Amino acid sequence: MAIRYGVIGTGALGGFYGGMLVRAGQEVHFLFRSDYEHVRENGLQVDSVLGDFHLPKVKAYSDVAQMPVCDVILVCMKTTGNHLLPGMIRPLLHSKTVIILIQNGLGLEKDLADQLPGVSIAGGLAFICSNKVSAGHIHHLDYGKLTIGSYNVSDVNILKTVVADFQAARVPAELSENLQFSRWQKLVWNIPFNGMTVVMNTTTDRLMANEHTRQLAKEMMLEVIHGANQCGYALSESFALKMIDMTLQMTPYAPSMKLDYDYHRPMEIEYIYSKPVQNAGAAGFVMHKVAMLEKQLQFIQANQ
Amino acid sequence: MAIRYGVIGTGALGGFYGGMLVRAGQEVHFLFRSDYEHVRENGLQVDSVLGDFHLPKVKAYSDVAQMPVCDVILVCMKTTGNHLLPGMIRPLLHSKTVIILIQNGLGLEKDLADQLPGVSIAGGLAFICSNKVSAGHIHHLDYGKLTIGSYNVSDVNILKTVVADFQAARVPAELSENLQFSRWQKLVWNIPFNGMTVVMNTTTDRLMANEHTRQLAKEMMLEVIHGANQCGYALSESFALKMIDMTLQMTPYAPSMKLDYDYHRPMEIEYIYSKPVQNAGAAGFVMHKVAMLEKQLQFIQANQ
User: Fold this and answer.
1) What is the pTM of this model?
2) How many degrees, rounded to 5, is the angle at CA B108 between CA B102 and CA B111?
3) A252 Cβ under 8 Å from any chain B Cβ
4) Set of chain B residues whose Cβ sits within 8 Å of the Cβ of A222
5) CA A6 to CA A75: how far, in whole Å?
6) Are A216 and A289 a contacting pair, CB within 8 Å?
7) Smallest Cβ distance to A288: which of B199, B215, B288?
8) Domain spanning B181-303: which superfamily?
9) Which residues of chain B lie closer than 8 angstroms to A294, CB-CB?
10) CATH for B4-177?
């Protein structure tokens, strides 16, 4: 079965993942905002560690009303725009459409499911370093694995097909048996390093080079793990050590939230911080440090 | 009994409190660092809400070896220099000298007592807005109350005389029955606002205007109160609300640590943050948020 894909938010993630699918022969319809004119005239350029490629003709749109209904919708925009999602997605739905939210954080699927009752929703986690360097021009620097998991998809065969399509397109992809577990697991790294690089106005390597912030990052990781445990997801404490070791070996890195801050864009505070704090709190565990970081980020966002 | 006073660290605090004593007729010997030449030639100028005054001739020194032994030594320098204190103080001691550490934080007296065994030590808490605006020129903006308490002073009569001397010099002064209680109580305000104005690079009014940081300040105050409780000091939770109300009514204010940060001076992290965290921890209470703020400040200090 050939899947007709739609990509909502064609930036660093959507441009790369959608572009890889197109290159592998899949039918992909891309929604653009400001880059629409440029891509219509010049196509999409992907410079990737897997090999550069240019797609001279892509199915580009600036208005969802012009797009066809899709079997699978890859949502690749920042969660700060998620309040707009239902309106953007409704015109693309048929009775069996599956929406995959390739976004960071916790609780995104629930919010969308509340707004679009009866619609099949999945989540996707991108382990990738990728930036949009200019209009229609993506720079894929490293990694790229995509983990997909069902939120309320009744027939997971379509997700298996999506995973197979990505694998055929040379994107490492896998199906998660437990989407919420995977989301919490990704937060173990995202929570300390996204927020701390913003509040300390620095990069991951400097946080790791200082004994105090290295210790703080580890403590915050353990807090997230304990929060996940309390919510019923059996993440192990040893995962924190693994993430610390990985970060020590990384090249200096500014996570996506730090880039948002630097470019004066809204930060993804709600789904990366507020929802995890709320969920852990509802389960009876106070994530003191994560909650404090959330409040510091809210202050910075309000005063930027 | 007339007391011979020595002032170590003649800046915003030492210049004001020592100057007020001199004006009231007390004998005060002042140790200066960089301002010595200026004060020897021009005297000390205090612009105060209590009335401006000029002291053309002050007993100024640049070297403790030149100073006489003193009955009471008022230590008014930043705690970041406390490792130098024993060497500075020893030449000024006679058998009954009392040292009063008019400094912020917790555990200062114990550290000095360990280094100067057998010497009488007290603590002082200054509730004052005062700045040094140039060499030998102090600007006293508001408040000024001095709370003095014994750490290991066997005969508290001398402290009573000191309090009376200050009162006679129009400085509101009182004796604390419980120095450690008073130090914890002052930390309830100092801990959230000194560090948070640095980490968020802002002033008290902006922290209070944002619902997230206002809430965080309150939570941190309660953490300090619970830390004090666990250490045996019966501070009440209602004191946090009182401090929040007071801060809401204050004019925009940059606490001393924020000024230290702005002027690239070392910050008083050890006695305002590390010691309270250690003391509460040793008593079995983890001050999560205070500990996090301490680590953030350590990072900022190391990377400034």
Assistant:
1) 0.94
2) 140
3) no
4) none
5) 8
6) yes
7) B288
8) N-(1-d-carboxylethyl)-l-norvaline Dehydrogenase; domain 2 (1.10.1040.10)
9) 212
10) 3.40.50.720
